Amino acid sequence: MVRAVLWILAAVLLGGIVHLSTVLATPQAAKQDAYSRLAPLTPVNAMVSLTPAKAGAEIMPLMDPAFAAAVCRYDLTTGPLKLMAPVSQAYTSVTFYTRKSVAYYAINDRAAGRRTIELDLMTAAQHAQVPEDEEVTAADRLIIESPTAMGLIVVRALAPEPSLMPNVRQALAAATCRVQPAQ
């Protein structure tokens, strides 16, 4: 009886290890990740509005048709990025992903507390080179450190009613991500 319980316990443990390994390795092995799917549609360091989600023809899986989305494929090797995204009436969020689709930072309009979400994106090395200005506080200048030089910024805005979608798309069209000029 004890031997059977040990075999069952070993099988469950081995199954858990295999399952966990598979789940953790899948993003690394995926050939059609978000970055690869968006590469032909989006230039580097420029914000592009995505086409409306239609069932069966989404650019990205699980896109909600009540949200308009814009994407910036970034490359920080040319310098830090300045992101500006106006807030829509209902809800706006900005999410940052690494090249391998790992989300590392997100902010929404309520957390930003302004009419525009404005922040600087840079690597840790670029952040270390930024001179500290005693008059500029963390509330004045939000700096996000990217763990990788390349990745995605996704801006999503909710249209609470289908008739408001054109207004939401217009607000997203004003979003920008540009390389900051050398100071």
Characteristic terms for this protein:
single chain; 183 residues; alpha+beta; Immunoglobulin-like; five-stranded antiparallel beta sheet; four-stranded mixed beta sheet; 5 helices; 31% strand
Percent helix: 25-40%
At CATH level 3, the topology of the largest domain is Immunoglobulin-like
Computed over alpha carbons, the radius of gyration is 21 Å
When the domains are counted, the total is: 2
Report strand order across the widest sheet. Answer: 1-2-8-4-5
The first-to-last residue Cα distance is: 74 Å
Number of helices in the DSSP assignment: 5
Strand content: 25-35%
User: Which CATH first-tier class of the largest domain would you pick?
Assistant: Mainly Beta
Architecture (CATH level 2) name of the largest domain: Sandwich
The helix/strand order is HHEEEEEHEHEEHE
Which structural class do you get from the secondary structure elements? Answer: alpha+beta
Please provide the count of β strands.
9
> Can you tell me the overall shape?
globular
Mean pLDDT comes to: 85
Q: Biggest sheet, open or closed, and with what strands and sense?
A: 5 strands, antiparallel
Poorly predicted regions? none
Description:
- The chain has about 180 residues and is an alpha+beta fold.
- The chain folds into two domains: about 1-30; about 35-180, Immunoglobulin-like (Sandwich), CATH 2.60.40.
- Helices cover about 30% and strands about 30% of the residues.
- It has five helices and nine strands.
- The chain has helices spanning about 1-30, 35-40, 110, 125-130, 165-175; strands at about 45-50, 65-75, 80-85, 90-100, 105-110, 115-125, 145, 150-160, 175-180.
- A five-stranded antiparallel β-sheet has the order 1-2-8-4-5.
- The model has no long low-confidence stretch (mean pLDDT about 85).
